[in-house]
Amino acid sequence: MSDASLKLDAATQKELQAFIAQETAQRKVNESIHQFTKMCWDKCISNVTSGRLAPAESSCLTNCVGRFLDASLHLVNDVESKRQQINAA
Amino acid sequence: MEGKKQAVIQAVQNETALTNVQELMNSSTERCYKACVTNPGASLTGNEQKCLSSCFDKYLEAFTIVSKAYGTRLRSE
Fold first, then answer.
1. How far apart are CA A74 and CA A30, in angstroms?
2. pLDDT digits (tens, 9 = 90+) for B34-54
3. How does it sit in the membrane (chain A) (predicted)?
4. Is ipTM strictly over 0.90?
């Protein structure tokens, strides 16, 4: 940004804050996609020279993402149960 | 005011896109190098180059599939 005096009115500031929040969320999504691609590539792809993705590889990748998110939820629920057990005791 | 706002928005979006591409390049290069260049010689062989290109195409496909799978899941929860 070459304009050193980026003075903005309150309304514009608010708009930009909303935009930045959205963009930050998008960046988190992008980062997750990169992590999942690396993880699921390692799980699902053995032959890198075969050209296009085979149907089995495609479904493996899709399942890989889905099951990781399920696993994450599962563990969050476990932690929540334990927390409740501790609170009840 | 509108011009400054647009300039900020554009700059931030450009940064997001650039970071995304850089990450994609780093990840794909790492995995494709590992898969294709098992015995580094004095220069890349023709086969190694072909392998790297095929691998990269495949990685892009995989990235797209993962994006779709994750996007679908996010929208349904």
1. 23
2. 999 999 999 999 999 999 999
3. Peripheral membrane protein
4. yes
Q: Kindly state the tokens that stand for B66.
A: 């993962």
The verdict on A37 touching B (C-beta cutoff 8 Å) is: yes
Does A72 touch chain B if contact means CB atoms closer than 8 Å?
no
Report yes or no: A41 at the B interface, CB cutoff 8 Å. yes
Q: Where are the domains of chain A?
A: 10-88
Q: What is the pLDDT of residues A41-86, one digit of tens each?
A: 999 999 999 889 999 999 999 999 999 999 999 999 999 999 999 9
Q: What tokens does B28 get?
A: 């794909």
pTM for the whole structure = 0.89
Rounded Cα–Cα distance for residues A72 and A13 (Å): 36
* H-type alpha helices, chain B: 2-36, 46-76
* Structural domain boundaries, residue B43: 2-76
Task: Determine the residue among B13, B65, B75 to mutate to test chain A binding: the one whose Cβ has the most chain A Cβ atoms within 10 Å.
Answer: B65
Task: Specify the fold of A10-88.
Answer: Helix Hairpins (1.10.287)
Identify all chain B residues contacting A24, using CB atoms and an 8 Å cutoff: none
* Closest Cβ–Cβ partner in B23, B32, B73 for A69: B73
